[in-house]
Every structure is written in structure tokens, then in C-alpha cells.
Design brief:
Layout (H helix, E strand, L loop, with lengths): L2 H17 L1 H7 L3 H6 L4 H23 L3 H15 L4 H22 L11 H18 L9
Helix pairs in contact: 1-4, 5-6, 5-7, 6-7
């Protein structure tokens, strides 16, 4: 009964994100360059916050707090692709996020027992090392191609 609401909110957030790909790529160059390219920086930032808020709220309401997936997966996608082009990052992030969530869900089952770990206990096992790697190597990681 909750799934239709999730689909409505997630689809609206994703559609909004798709429309923001070009302004996001322009903002990678800096605010002044983006403004010179015709991007309304303030309006785009508000739209980004709204889309992010909708997607975060829908996911948290439907799936619960799975924080490390949302933090780590975009960095995993950037490291895999070696680019910051949002046209390539968005689909790869969606697919890799689903794969990481599925992997974490499979790891919640304790072999030889009927016990199931909470998903929040497993997601840091994958997410924390990625975040630590990005923080430690942030000056050596080149995303721009």
C-alpha cells in the first residue's frame, strides 16, 4: 500500500534530477562560469535541494535510514567512471546503489541461524571504507575528464 507513494515521490525526484544534469555540469566549472553560461545558480541550487530532499525523504520513509549507501555510492560511481559528468554518473549511481543495497541486504542474513541483522548494521561495512578512502585521498583523486 505504500509502494505507489514511494514510486510517485521517487519518480518526481528522479525526473527533476534528470532536468538538472546540464546545470550541475555547468556548476562544476564554478558559479561565475555557470552564470555566464546562462545558469540561474540560485534557482538551480534550490531545485537541487528540493530534488535531494524529495529523494531522501521517500527513501528514508520507505526503506529506513540507510545512510552509508547514499554517501558512498556516488563516490564509488565517480571512482569507477573517472568523471564528474552527471549525464554518465546519474544512471551508474542508480544502478550501483541498487547493487550495493542488494549486497548489504544479502549480508544481513546470518548463516546457520534464523537471526537477521538490521540493514543499518551492515551498510557501514561497505560505506565507511569508501568514505575514509575518499577523505584520505581527496587530493589525489581526479574526477574531471
Amino acid at each position: 500500500e505504500k509502494l505507489p507513494w514511494f514510486v510517485i515521490f521517487a519518480a518526481s525526484g528522479l525526473i527533476g534530477s534528470i532536468f538538472l544534469i546540464k546545470p550541475l555540469n555547468a556548476l562544476l566549472l564554478g558559479e561565475s562560469y555557470a552564470a555566464n553560461l546562462g545558469v540561474r545558480v540560485k534557482r538551480v541550487r534550490i531545485a537541487i535541494l528540493i530534488c535531494t530532499g524529495i529523494l531522501t525523504a521517500a527513501t528514508t520513509a520507505f526503506c529506513g535510514p540507510i545512510s552509508f549507501i547514499g554517501l558512498a555510492v556516488p563516490h564509488i560511481a565517480r571512482l569507477l567512471l573517472g568523471t564528474s559528468n552527471h549525464k554518465q554518473l546519474l544512471p551508474v549511481t542508480l544502478i550501483s546503489g541498487a547493487c550495493v543495497a542488494l549486497l548489504c541486504n544479502m549480508l544481513t542474513v546470518v548463516p546457520g541461524s534464523n537471526a537477521i541483522l538490521p540493514l543499518n548494521a551492515v551498510t557501514p561495512l561497505i560505506g565507511a571504507p569508501v568514505i575514509i578512502y575518499v577523505i584520505v585521498n581527496r587530493k589525489n583523486i581526479q574526477y574531471f575528464n
